[in-house]
## 1
Amino acid sequence: MSYQLLNDPFQNKGTAFTTAERRSLGLEAYCRLTFKRLINRLSKLTLSFKRKQRP
């Protein structure tokens, strides 16, 4: 069921699934670290941007 849910564009919330929803729907294996990866990429991008602004 979890794989089918992720393939349904009307029910798939991507990273908006709460931790409780991920557990109850069996989605932990499919989208467990996506948010943390996004935050890591954003912080690396911010650091890179700040470094390039310095003369």
## 2
Amino acid sequence: MNATAKSKTKKTFPLEIEENLHKALKHKAIESDMSLHAYILDALVSRVNEETAVYNAGGKTKENRREK
């Protein structure tokens, strides 16, 4: 398999956020020596992994997830 076939498909979408959140994210990214893009992706991946771990550990049921 070549390198192109191994790469994951990426999706993009516009994200509208309030100015104060943008500033806070920008400052956190700078503190972490990361780009804003990389910081937001890292935060999203961390949140999804955290919630998946809780779900897999029995902390959430399918019924509870639907109630949100």
